[in-house]
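Quick one: co-fold with flavin-adenine dinucleotide.
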Amino acid sequence: MSDYSLDLNDDQQTLVDWVHTFAADVIRPAAEEWDEREEFPWPIVQEAANIGLYGWEFMAANLSDPTGLSIVLAIEELFWGDAGIGLAIFGSGLAAAGISGNGTPEQVMEWVPQCYGTADKVQLGAFCVSEPDAGSDVSSLRTRAVYDEATDEWVLNGTKAWITNGGIADIHVVVAAVDPALKGRGQASFVVPPGTKGLSMGQKYKKHGIKASHTSEVVLEDVRVPGRCLLGGKEKLDEKLARGREAGKTGQKQPAMATFEATRPAVGAQALGVARAAYEYSLAYAKERMAFGRPIIMNQAIAFKLADMKMEIDAARLLVHRAAWMAATRKEFKNGEGSMSKLKAAEVAVWVTEQAIQILGGYGYTREYPVERWHRDAKIFTIFEGTSEIQRLVISRNISGLRIE
Ligand SMILES: Cc1cc2nc3c(=O)[nH]c(=O)nc-3n(C[C@H](O)[C@H](O)[C@H](O)COP(=O)(O)OP(=O)(O)OC[C@H]3O[C@@H](n4cnc5c(N)ncnc54)[C@H](O)[C@@H]3O)c2cc1C
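Sure, here it is.
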């Protein structure tokens, strides 16, 4: 296998260096301020748009890498800078993925660029699936979509919870139940265009970490969208509903699950960025900090911790890269490899950031040093886009062929 290589190619290395420079020069210095302010970091997102790091062209270019690695490499660097700001920059990608995964080519061309806008007019996208009573259990959505044949419009009603960019986005992609009795097979995704009446922001959540990322409820009250906003089109939906009604079981994945499945290695890469930041910081600190007349790294208790941190991060990265490569080359995730990558990287990030606090001792526990922030930020990766328990469910069902509950 002469062409087998784990080296990054020149384009990938250039990308890593470019994103890293932005993360080091622009994101890192701003991270503490936006964490404290707990507001969306518009000036930083604008700077990212100015240099072409925020925009659909950037996403399209990186997603077209046939190895699948470019996008996860870029994300790791971005989140190395800061996870809250990283998600502010990357969050629109979830809406874009929802549109790309379910829309017709015409819908993708029309709506995906609008999730980002331009450097002159930055826009945001939000992907709205979760509800107060339906997070992991996405088959139980209560938000309803009813077709008004007279006007060829869909009428959406319901409340979405925990929505990244919710209410401040220009494009909201909403997953709703058309036929609730069919559970996941009775759901469809809709684009809610900018300025549509009836969509409003509910409560804005105060969070434990990733505070620079905006998370809100989205309230939908008689929101009317034109028929062309149904992703995939009416004919496809009617076929899907008919199949669902007849067979009861079509094996077809519901829209929300398909989106999350494809984006899992990307979430793993986010977690990797945070873990690597904490590892690098605590390694440098351990070489500097003196106790008992020697640098603390001279104690095996500290050095071995750092060895394990590095090993776990590298192991997680290999899983993330494998899953990204499998997704790009359309290999089937027979053993839940996408879930494995997200699960491992998330748990590594939580563990590594906790070890980093330990290595910094009392300083690590204060907000004067960034490691406590990284620990707060890391925790989200075991929760959103499928909790760790749900990832284990996916993996165990895949490896066993059984419907493990
Ligand atoms: C900051 C943030 C941003 C988010 N952004 C978005 C977004 O942009 N769009 C969006 O749609 N959603 C978003 N979410 C929602 C997120 O995906 C959900 O919070 C997550 O899926 C978990 O759902 P839940 O909170 O309802 O928890 P629950 O589903 O109530 O789970 C509670 C606990 O029970 C466990 N559990 C549940 N079912 C099982 C089971 N069958 N087996 C074993 N354990 C189980 C879970 O693992 C968890 O530990 C976001 C959440 C947060 C916190």
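If it helps, The CA atoms of residues 139 and 184 lie 4 Å apart.
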